[in-house]
Each structure stands twice: as structure tokens, then as C-alpha cells.
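Researcher: Structure prediction, please.
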Amino acid sequence: MALLEIPFGKTCSYMELSKKLGDPKAIRAVASANGKNPLWIVVPCHRVIGSDGSLTGYAGGLYRKKWLLALESPAAQQSLF
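Model: Predicted structure follows.
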């Protein structure tokens, strides 16, 4: 499953995913399959975003998608000095 190959802390666009699957015109099919993912926490469909970097539909709600992506982002290191 291609979604499982998107590393923790990384994102992939629907177009990139459809190209990876061998059919660059299958963007809507990829989005539809993503939307039907019943295991949206286990199978990381929250890592798939729009080509322009926008957050698009997510079964758990866009606020959860945003939260999960923020949780997976590397925290900015702060200097003590």
C-alpha cells in the first residue's frame, strides 16, 4: 500500500501518489480511495496533501489532519544561549 511508504514527518501530493502508482491521471481515484480509508490513523492518509501544499479532505476532519501533521513535524530546536 503506497500510503504506508510515506515516511513519518513527510507529505506527498495526490498527484505524486498517482504518478508513483503508475497513472498520473488517477488523481481523483487516489483521492477517493484515500477518503475511504477506514484506518485513517494506522494507514497515514493524513500525509497526502494538495499539489499546492493545501490540506484537503480527511476522514477525521481537517483539524485532525493539521494536528497530526504538526505532531509529526520536527520541532524547531531552541538555543539556550
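Model: Residues 2-72 form a domain with the Arc Repressor Mutant, subunit A fold (CATH 1.10.10.10).
Researcher: Thanks, that helps.
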